[in-house]
Amino acid sequence: VLENQDLQDLIKPQKVEFRSLNFNSTLHWQPGRAREARGTVYFVQYKVYGQSTWQNKDDCWGIQTHVCDLTNEISDIQEPYYGRVKAASAGVYSNWSLSCRFTPWRETMIGPPTVTVVHSNKSIILKLQAPHSPYKRKRGSKIPMTNYYDLLYQVFIINNLLDEQHRVLVYEGKDKVIKIEDLRPGVSYCIMAKTYVPLLDRSSAYSSRQCTVL
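Structure tokens predicted for Interleukin-22 receptor subunit alpha-2:
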């Protein structure tokens, strides 16, 4: 019996946590201390905070990977959720390992906007598009993140003659089309943008650099 108890403890999943980008939400965990235990499989359940019954995630029942996509199961973005994982190896089952409470609306990371650069002779015109959520309208198009948050765009410009770290904030606001004027012809400029959520005081990562020579 002792050996089984030891194995139970050794295979118990560690560090169960939600990670989420634009409401694409996955549960991640690390294997237990018995990393060499081959053939360990995992079982995932989830529930809304305050509910008594856990729901099985059928696609993540007896899996060998350490990640489970719960995007569709936790689509009520204002609700707090829990996930939990248990492991089985050689007929022995671990106890459940519980995640922290996770509320998608509060905790999802927002992605950067998509930036398209159109340049004329002394100015750069940018078109910005907010990231999309995984959730769809009735007609099938994905709902943009601007439906869920009051988003601002932050646009930065890098003059390539200057130091790479010298990023200048040239615009912050909601416009989707922005014109940056009074630029020098023949100089290479790079544009990067972020999405900013004032209510949560949270910024996205930078978008990929778009460079252009006027």
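The chain has a mean pLDDT of 91.
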